[in-house]
């Protein structure tokens, strides 16, 4: 295994971590499996593609707008639809987010067509060499971005009043609401934050690869695989989980060829589930 | 309870016999339509057994439709056995995959199970796309002279859908089904009372897989080909969930109603409008869980009871 492969794996793992972070955040706080996460990622890429295509923005300049745009779309969905379903039956939010993901795919297809797109950037195909190791610029940038966003998320959750409210709502929503925390708003803000992270991942994915309205499903499963490897509740764990997945994918591509790349994600996901009797997620058994 | 059970079983048997007897007299387009509806019904009812009655919500029906479709297709393409044997092999292949996936899947509860099945379905599709012997992305064309068509295919569909209905009836009225429902509603309590958790969930998963696989064989015969984008399409998972939830999960009649409503009201009407149909399907899922979580059939039954008050309320005391 050459150093090139290892470095490429670690760097692409940053992108996976960014996609997994939002899923992990929503699950950790809301205990909700968000099946439309993939569409939030792809949605971010499409919002950025508008700014890149019509306003001539650089994708990195479009990134904050994409994050904001997708977050604004996600907020009311949680506030006025999903939080109500969380209080009803067990699988209602799951089915509802599945339905929303289909609707989002339909809207994206109607608006943008089904042809693959990519975000044009000078650093999309560029690379440089460090100590004899070939590095793709876009993956280096996305890795740095992931580290920054992970650190920001961690600081936001641990050092700010809003973060304390989020953690209180996660630990015990009933008590939190008795202490004057508006749990409905906290939940909606959490999904909006996760959506912003997803959109950031989408913009970088859009620069590194092409995307279509139906690209969301593999991205969703990538996010779940990261969460399965990382466990819940630690931002640093998500980063490590993403890097582990990136290394595995990179190594398998080098060994077996590119066609099996996605298959590795699903296999890893299953193995991660099988090796921990109660599932790799800590709250797998609600008894 | 026993009266209901007897009536249900008798009605089902009568419908089956009548269907098989009437089948040869129908014109080809009706037979084709019937085959399509019955294949959907078998997949939906198999999903209902696993998810409605046993409470393990699956997003992976496509994996088993694919296992069955490819099981039958590859058997016919690479050997000289007849199509009925291939149907059995299709069921066995899907059952084997279900049993294999049960090892990781049955460790998971609730939403985790759903994610696991979704990953399984995507993995199966990715595997088939990369598997050269199974035709890769193009798939396999079935030997057209050795597969059932018209009446024979319709009758096969009746038998497969009938088996799914019979199993659902059994699960609804048997002690086995009662234990499954107990696990669904309160697992710790059921386990505490001695229900063998793993065995019951395993049985529900494998039985559902076998039925879905046999429906996959029907689909493969009807399409005369199998490919990752047809039998392994996520649409099968979606339709299983949608059709059953619209009708009403956890009831025998629910999926029958749901398949009819979704097929005529949506699949048929929006044929050729792929985007619109996706939008409506998604919206329908959201609306159902929001406003009619027990399904439309349950709403109709309740409405009918409200319109026609029970005798006790009408007669003077």
TrEMBL record, chain A:
Chief subcellular location: membrane
Localization, UniProt: Cell membrane
InterPro entries noted in UniProt: ABC_transp_permease, BCAA_transport_permease
Keywords from the UniProt entry: Amino-acid transport, Cell membrane, Membrane, Transmembrane, Transmembrane helix, Transport
A GO MF label: transmembrane transporter activity
Matches recorded under CDD domains: TM_PBP1_LivH_like
Domain of life: Bacteria
Any one GO cellular component localisation term in the record: plasma membrane
Annotated TM spans: 6-28, 40-57, 63-82, 94-112, 137-157, 186-208, 220-248, 260-278
One Pfam family here: BPD_transp_2
Membrane topology qualifier: Multi-pass membrane protein
GO biological process: amino acid transport
Family statement drawn from the similarity comment of this UniProt entry: Belongs to the binding-protein-dependent transport system permease family. LivHM subfamily.
Protein name: Branched-chain amino acid ABC transporter permease
């Amino acid at each position: 295994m050459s150093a090139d492969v290892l470095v490429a794996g670690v760097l692409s793992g940053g992108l996976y971590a960014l996609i997994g972070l939002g899923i992990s955040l929503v699950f950790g706080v809301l205990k909700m499996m968000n099946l439309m996460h993939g569409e939030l990622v792809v949605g971010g890429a499409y919002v950025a593609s508008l700014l890149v295509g019509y306003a001539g923005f650089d994708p990195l300049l479009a990134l904050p707008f994409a994050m904001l745009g997708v977050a604004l779309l996600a907020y009311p969905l949680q506030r006025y639809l999903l939080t109500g379903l969380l209080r009803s039956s067990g699988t209602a939010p799951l089915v509802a987010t599945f339905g929303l993901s289909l609707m989002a795919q339909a809207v994206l297809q109607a608006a943008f067509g089904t042809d693959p797109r990519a975000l044009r950037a000078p650093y999309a195909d560029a690379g440089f060499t460090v100590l004899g190791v070939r590095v793709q610029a876009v993956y280096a940038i996305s890795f740095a971005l992931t580290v920054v966003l992970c650190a920001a998320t961690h600081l936001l959750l641990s050092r700010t009043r809003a973060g304390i409210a989020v953690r209180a709502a996660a630990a015990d929503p009933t008590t939190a609401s008795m202490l004057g925390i508006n749990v409905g708003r906290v939940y909606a803000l959490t999904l909006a934050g996760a959506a912003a992270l997803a959109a950031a991942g989408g913009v970088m994915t859009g620069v590194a690869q092409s995307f279509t309205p139906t690209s969301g499903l593999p991205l969703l499963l990538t996010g779940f695989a990261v969460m399965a490897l990382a466990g819940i509740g630690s931002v640093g764990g998500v980063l490590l989980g993403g890097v582990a997945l990136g290394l595995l994918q990179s190594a398998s591509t080098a060994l077996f060829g590119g066609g099996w790349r996605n298959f590795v994600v699903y296999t890893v996901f299953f193995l991660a589930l099988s090796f921990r009797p109660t599932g790799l997620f800590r709250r797998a058994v609600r008894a | 309870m026993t009266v209901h059970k007897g009536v249900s079983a008798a009605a089902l048997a009568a419908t089956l016999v009548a269907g098989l007897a009437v089948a040869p007299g129908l014109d080809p387009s009706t037979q084709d339509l019937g085959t399509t509806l019955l294949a959907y019904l078998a997949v939906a009812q198999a999903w209902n057994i696993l998810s409605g009655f046993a409470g393990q919500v699956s997003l992976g029906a496509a994996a088993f439709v694919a296992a069955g479709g490819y099981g039958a297709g590859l058997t016919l393409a690479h050997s000289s056995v007849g199509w009925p044997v291939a149907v059995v092999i299709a069921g066995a292949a899907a059952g084997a995959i279900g049993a294999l996936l049960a090892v990781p899947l049955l460790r998971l509860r609730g939403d985790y199970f759903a994610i696991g099945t979704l990953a399984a379905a995507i993995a199966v599709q990715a595997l088939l796309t990369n598997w050269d012997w199974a035709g890769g992305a193009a798939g396999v064309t079935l030997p057209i002279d050795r597969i059932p068509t018209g009446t024979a295919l319709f009758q096969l569909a009746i038998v497969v859908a009938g088996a799914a209905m019979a199993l659902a009836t059994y699960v609804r009225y048997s002690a086995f089904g009662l234990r499954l429902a107990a696990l669904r509603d309160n697992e710790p309590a059921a386990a505490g009372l001695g229900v063998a958790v793993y065995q019951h969930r395993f049985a529900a998963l494998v039985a559902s897989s076998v039925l879905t696989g046999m429906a996959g064989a029907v689909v493969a015969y009807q399409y005369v080909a199998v490919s990752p984008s047809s039998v392994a399409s996520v649409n099968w998972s979606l339709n299983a969930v949608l059709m059953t939830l619209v009708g009403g999960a956890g009831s025998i009649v629910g999926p029958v109603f749901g398949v009819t409503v979704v097929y005529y009201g949506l699949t048929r009407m929006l044929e050729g409008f792929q985007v619109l149909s996706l939008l409506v399907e998604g919206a329908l899922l959201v609306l159902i869980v929001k406003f009619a979580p027990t399904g439309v059939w349950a709403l109709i039954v309740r409405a009918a009871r409200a319109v026609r008050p029970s005798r006790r309320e009408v007669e003077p005391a």
